Amino acid sequence: MKGAYECHGFGKIASGDCRGEGIGGVWLVKRIAGPLQTTRMWRFSLFGFPVTVEPWFWLTSFLLGGGLTMRGRDGLAFVAIWMVVVLVSILVHEFGHAFAGRRYGALPEIRLHGFGGVAIMHGGYFDRPQSILVSAAGPAASFALGVVVWLVSKVWLPEDYFAFLAIQFLLYVNFFWTVINLLPILPLDGGQIIRDVMGPRRLQLVVWIGVVCAGAVALWAFSVGRTFLGIMMIILAFSNYQSQNIQGGVVRD
What we know:
Blueprint: E1 3-7, E2 12-13, E3 16-21, E4 29-33, E5 42-46, E6 49-53, H1 55-64, H2 72-103, E7 107-113, E8 116-122, H3 128-155, H4 161-181, H5 189-198, H6 203-223, H7 227-242
Parallel strand pairs: 6-7
Antiparallel strand pairs: 1-4, 2-3, 3-8, 5-6, 7-8
Helix pairs in contact: 2-3, 2-4, 3-4, 3-5, 5-6, 6-7
């Protein structure tokens, strides 16, 4: 590969675009010399999309699943089921972005990292309606998976405890996480959608909406004991605040 694109957060330039769930500062895609440098644990291709699963993805999934407090075989099975559900659910989400991006001429690459996943749109250059559709495709895929699992649970509720757990985890990740992902906070999909709806001239307003919303959700999360979500929202609020003086990427109207 002659060069690569590096994803840093929200924003677009003519040479590429990033979509997905995750935490970062301002997402920019920039050209760098040589192949993309990243520590890889697992790399494969599915549906024609290259996929990289980084070590931090496994660690975060392990911790969120209660890996530090698990006991015995049942505890190990609990965490393992959770990690598989998270892997499948985030892949489905990113494939939603990837298929939409490929529809509009991009060459998507999927990467799962410590705070979720991202679909990097190599060569992607979308107008605003296309950008909104690409951003919305990920949450739509997640929601669709959740609906399918919910319908299955209505006609078949497994007696096996671990199968029941898998269904509950799938519903939680694909409904609750999708709602969080649709909040108007950059670089979440909801933030990217509202950014494209409001246009590049109102990027400062979009950023401040993200700061306020992330701060409010952080307060709620800590009040109900969702510590990880609270920390994530604080990071998002801070990264949006820092980015307020950074210009948005090029968007073709």
